[in-house]
Amino acid sequence: VVFGVRSSPFLLEAVLKNHLAKNRDVDPFVTKRLLNSFYADNLETSVHNESEFKRLINVSNELMKKGGFELRDGEPSTPISKTIDLLGLKWNKSEDILSINIK
Length: 103
What we know:
Elements: H1 8-22, H2 28-37, E1 38-39, E2 42-43, H3 50-66, E3 83-86, E4 89-92, E5 97-99
Antiparallel strand pairs: 1-2, 3-4, 4-5
């Protein structure tokens, strides 16, 4: 996918959806989440527990590598007080609060 042209977001989404649809049978739980959770080149989804998180990370990395993509920076929502950047917002994981800095 060529980045920087007007059609880049559309092309990226089309390529991702096509790749995931072709590999839907690898792990339907994970591919369904991936198909419904990308925003541009960011993946945001949630799971119920740590074992589902590990499964999501492992299968997602395998699936995306197969298509020539690389996933980075998986963040579990744990009770540890930590704020991270998420899609241009700040996410306080311990309180599950999204915020934005206004300047």
